[in-house]
Records
---
Amino acid sequence: MEKRVVFRSSPLPYLLVLPQLAVTAVFFLWPASQALYQSLLIEDPFGLSTEFVWFENFENLFADPLYIGSFWTTAYFSAAVTALSLGLALLLAVMADRVVKGAMTYKTLLIWPYAVAPAIAGVLWLFLFNPSIGLVAYYLKIVGYNWNHVLNGGEAMLLVVIAAAWKQVSYNFLFFLAGLQAIPKSLIEAAAIDGAGPVRRFWTIVFPLLSPTTFFLLVVNLVYAFFDTFGIIHAVTKGGPGKATEILVYKVYSDGFVGLDLGGSAAQSVILMAIVVGLTVIQFRFIERRVHY
Amino acid sequence: MRLNRNAILLAAALSFAGSFAQPAAAATEIQFWHAFTGPLGEILAKQVEGFNASESDYQVVAVYKGNYSEALNAGVAAFRAKQQPHILQVFEVGTATMMAAKGAVNPVFEVMKAGGETFDPAVYLPTVTGYYTDLEGNMLSMPYNSSTPVLYYNKEAFQAAGLDPESPPKTWQEFGAALDALQASGSVCPFTTTWQSWVHLENFSAWHNVPFATQANGFGGLDTTLVFNGPTQVRHIQQLGDWARDGKFVYGGRRNESGARFNSGECAMLTESSAGYASIKAQTEFDFGVSSLPYWDDADGAPQNTIIGGASLWVLTGHPQEEYEGVAKFFSYLSSPEVQAEWHQQTGYLPITHAAYDLTKEQGFYEQNPGTETALIQMTAKAPTENSKGVRLGSFDQIRGIIDEELEAVWAGTKSAQEALDSAVERGNVLLRRFERANN
């Protein structure tokens, strides 16, 4: 049975959280409610003629095969970004954890990319892989591979996944490293005395003990891939070629801000909001049970 | 933290000094939001300075608001928040959006009349103003920067391929032969293009006198539908697709990314806006030529005339009447032959008045800069028909995006021209119906 400590209620705690609540209300609740309302309207950009249409914007979206396609693109993109950045970060963290000489330098260098803004990260990779002037594209051409992400959807997807994952590796690395250092050395030493090799020690001791960190990072990375990668997509591919890299959040932008279709765009952002809420709930309810604290 | 504090002090000092540089409070401020940076932004700033120096009652304040899409968005958002500027620069694809927003726009012909400025629509070049004029012949926005696509070619590459550098291909048939010769001479990129939808569908349709959309390309009303999947367009796109497959046409991107590949000498021919002239001249180290857009000579009515791209200045409602008098004065200043001729000669954009065109001729500009008159001849050689006045469609920016996506599928060889254009028409029509509904 759980024990609950009940404090006598006083207005002070409410007063203390009030600033935070106010910020949330102004910067999240109010705009979110505006989006909800807007998603039920068909309106011209200047707001001169407005028609209340109930859920027609949503019906249109789900009748549109391109919108459904964007779902799959997003699923594929976020899974790839999350897997790649988590995997790489874990590998780097395990290696950095063992290094004795110059450890600080390695760590600092590995953390650096996190300070780069998404759009800059995108442009950086774009320069490397640009079919006309990119260095990597040039070397690929020498070894006989004609890289052209402007026309090849698979290559475009690969490029944005690499750019997005590269930027996130640092963040994950930091948390994995902290997680690794929190694992008691005695456990690992005991296993070593029992004759477990490094691989065995990693999979039976380190990895399970890291699971709270991994779980937390999984949530953070998925949300990152869903939303924060906008800058990278915008800078590198603009959702193209075709619709190959148009993830949901980019479609919200292109329909709302390029197409000036506010109702349809608002409906998409409402759906996006629901997805993220749903994902987070699922993760905490089902996956968290399997996490060892 | 000493450095930081100094930096803050410096910033404060600068902004303080800056506030003195603002126009004196006595003059009425006219807000002008635009989308120009770099050399174009500097020329625009000079025009504004010129006007402000000639005027004591009004001061135009030019504010850069990002690229065309971003500037339009800023204007729309500001209007909704009742903070709109007096003048907003809107690119040509936003024209239908602005025209449909009747309560938000103060038509230019009315602004000029109410402002007491002499305003005669006949002084303007009809092929330029036609894009921004309603069916009754009223000019709704002030054309600012207008250009039309032309063919640029590398004379040295022509020589290397055994082609005559002084007779560029006039038709797409001759163009195909030139591509063969260039490829045979070892060119890795015989041809590339910028703005594929604008050049190879919108202008192509006008140039061949076939419709891009019904209702006179949308000039006749919002109930227009796309029809650019006709045989003339399909044939052209299929030909480009075949050239792409054979490595004779190399696709470089949706906007003007390919320009760099022509400037570097990698690509031998380029279809690009006439306004690209200044940067091509500045960045190329080889001799290049400018020629009119090729046409299929077995197509009826070709060549007709090409249409414009670029942007115009829209006046937004919601300000006191006397401020619009300042707007009218500014427009009169911009339309004056000297300002227009200078703008035309420096940027490669078209002059908007006959007087500016004549002045440029008198000054001998076209003799000193061969090829610069190509765009004007191409646009004014024939009186425009219903198919060649321009294109006026709602959600046009997005429709262009759809066209880009479908054309990319043709260049990649995953769709035939017919399939791609049929699909683009179908997808674009959905947006047109939605726009019609939102603006009724």
---
Amino acid sequence: MQSAKCKVRSARVKAACVLQFALCILVCPSPEFAFAEDASPKLVGSASCATAACHGGLAGHKFVGSEFPIWSARDPHSRAYSVLRNDLSRQMAEQLKLPKPAHESAVCLNCHSPATSTDSKLSSISGRAPLAGVDCEQCHGPAERWLTEHVRTDWRNRSAEVKRQRGYHDLTDVLTRANVCADCHVGGPGRDVNHDLIAAGHPRLFFELSTFHANWPKHWPDEIDAKRHPIELGFAKRGILTGSAFEARLWAVGQVVTAQRSLELLSHRAELAKETPAKWPELTEWNCFACHHDLQSASWWQSKDGSKRPRVSFGWNAWPYAMLEPLARQKPSPMVQLPEAELAKLRRHFTSPLPLAEAIDREANAAAKSLRVLAERLNHADSTNDVLSPDGLAKLRLMLVKDEGPRLVSRDWDSATQLFLSLNALQHAIAAQGSLMETDQERDRQIQSVLDSMNETLNFPSGLRSPRDFSAQPIERLQADLKRLQKLLDGSPKN
Amino acid sequence: MLRSSRELSSRVDINVHRQPNRQRRMAWWLALWAGVGSLMWLSLQHLRGEHQIYQAGDVTSPHWLIENECWRCHTTWTPLQRLVTFSDEAHSIDNKKCETCHRVGEHHANQNPAHRDISCAACHQEHEGSDMLTKPSSRHCIACHTELKTTHGASEVFAKSVTRFDQLDGHPEFLLKSLTKDAATAPPLHAKHGANRAIENFQRPGDDAPRWQDRGRIRFNHAAHLKAEYDTNGKLIHGLIGKDRKFIDLSHSCEVCHEPDHEGRFLKPISFERHCRECHPLLFDHEHFPGQSVPHETPDIVRGFLTETYTLKALAPKSDSAPNDPTLSRGKRADEPSDSPSRPLPGHRDFQRLSKDQAKTVLDNVTKAEQITQQHRHSQFGYEATGGCRYCHEVEPVVSKSAIAIADWKIVPTNVPSRWLSHSQFHHEPHRLLSCTACHAGVAQSKSTGDVLIPSIDVCRACHAHRPAEWMDGIKSETTAKPGSPTSPPIESLKDLLSNVNRGARTSCIECHIYHDPSKDKWNGPFAP
């Protein structure tokens, strides 16, 4: 009896198993649709990554296996939360009249420690507060749905789309990386470093991906990045010689993504203006030093170099958009097409002290859309024969120095600094691309010395946080540097 | 031969009245033809476009644009009314027509209400020549001011009787001058119309009685700046000490400091930067910053300047130490290994904060420098640095709001008026043939800011009089030319000049006074906002 019952039960179990299996096959024909998109994945917490056997070991390898200790010790992102408890943050919270201290206010935590922010849509899987700061999951994505999977050997073979659906940010992709950085370093809804914040003491955001990336103490070897973007240069004695287009792509994509995300933020700000008109116009959208300079023309702190007027232009903040035009003017460049009409309209809007929010919202949205496409194209651009190719970059650099440089330099500090950062990035990018020919080390050294001199000119005077008197003299010095650079580049066999 | 009455009567034609009178007929015809001829001539002239024959005279040049559009001004035709009633009151123009373009202020806030209805044309007569429209005759003013009746009865504010400028009792003394003269009997300041706030009745140490003085809160000694002595050879042996430590003579160079404005009408305010700094640099730390001076600005800015100067000095790299460590500039800790090539990010390189010790040193330096700036004297730096703030200004302590330990201070406002006789119109330019001291007498002897050096009415009357030569002797003594120095045109030559003419300079009221309140003028036209 019992055995009959058991048989029946086992038959039922079998049937149920078969049914379940069939259902599984029916409902989940492929693992791509294993998770529904509606519920956002949860955070697991960096502690889970930091086990000694995974990313928390002090391994003999330089990087692999010891990512967490490197992040914790060197990466400034690990200290993003602790700065909210220092004197400046306390002072800022007071000045902004925040109801809570900085380390509890969403307006700060959204960037400085998104996991602990009340605004955060991400919740911890354990219900406990995860590690504070900008930790692993803020860049790599909430790990609920990929944690177990990513330790398996077949994880590498999964398509990017599958990984994305699991909530994993594929940071090997330059565009994804740029966007993840821009989330905070440019900002967006809920992460808006506006004039109020800056006035209270927050440093101004001026993001340039390639420079920030180069200066960032990384928890992986640079060679990995370089190897992922190879360029075949041709045959040499030792075999096929390859260079890397990573630096070039990082710079170009970074410029476009910064502009695109800035436009999206602008559109968001303009939208907010409809509900709360008092928040419009948002002053950070203008050139900082158009207003932040002495009103007297020849006062004691401006007359030292004999210039009568400060060289500032009252107009749209040039920082995110300074390099777009040079990128677009590069020829041949079939893929680089700028939303020029929209950008021109926006530029015109910002010559007025009270631009129309609705029109700006419209134009900024349209321009951002075009730039998103442009960023995609740059991200997948062929690195052998387009703007990111060795020839393309050399031409671009020469054009920057020859045609665009003098205009950018005399416009304002932001444009001049972007030019410098781009020239510096291109210098590294061109070096990384390598060459079949012998590199001219003397020339590179001279180019570096010109760049150093430009950096010296653009640096804020000691002890100050503004260019103070970016006027006739520094501009003349920069123009002279550009001429020297042009001479060096003109004489080179590459160009 | 007898003549009977019949005979006599027969000599007279009984129908004589029926016969035409040739003389009368001729006269009649002449009159008729004259009339017709005139009309024909007028018609001819009219057809030729000649309109001058109807007009009283040229209109003023600003009205040339509308010269042929009579209706723009004229609303009625009143010549006949004027003829019949023998009245000047009737004008063929309405004030509203004038006010279409000219919205002028009223004469005075509490003027007689009846005056508001006076026709503009009563004073401003058009068709009288080029500039007569803006130069009404004094008789219009004197009509009321000979015996002024005000709405509030007798007033101390206004002169009761004004008849002529060049008569001793025809026009009162300038108010400021009268205030400085009759201190004992002077009425309270607020009762004096147009009195400038700069002068008040106050007593100085050593004064027996209160007197009217310039109450400017600044120390300036005219005599010290104008001193100049020459020896018998014409060599300057004493004077102002210039920057190169040589004597200079400014006794006849008033314009070095008192610069005329672009019109030459008034004199510009004195500017420290242009007129004072060269000899009075505001040195603050001759040892570390030789020759550098603080800006002539508010105490806040002076403190800002000093704080910045000393902060930058504290942060400046020492010449003997190593250059800035590049690893410090990238937001990294110094003990971290540099595992990737860094790239410079301009603007962020070496932002440093002061250490506590450095901050204290800066604070001490600023405190010390502020004290020196305020009150250093010759002895401290030599003649090149004559005087700090307190040398000219009054400095007052202020209750400090800030947490820092430096005492706050402020400069008492100088209260120097940009104009003294603010109700008058004066133009310095036409008076350029006179030396400054011809009118502003006593400048060379004035040692106190309290001295009021505005000339008296008598000085004006020297030229602005029917017989100017009579007044000359009065101001002759004021000018004393120095040997070897560039002299102004001596008053004698002026006297000679004026003695040959019958009439002096103009004396009409509008030479100095304005009828309409210019502050209430409004631009009123198609381009008005």
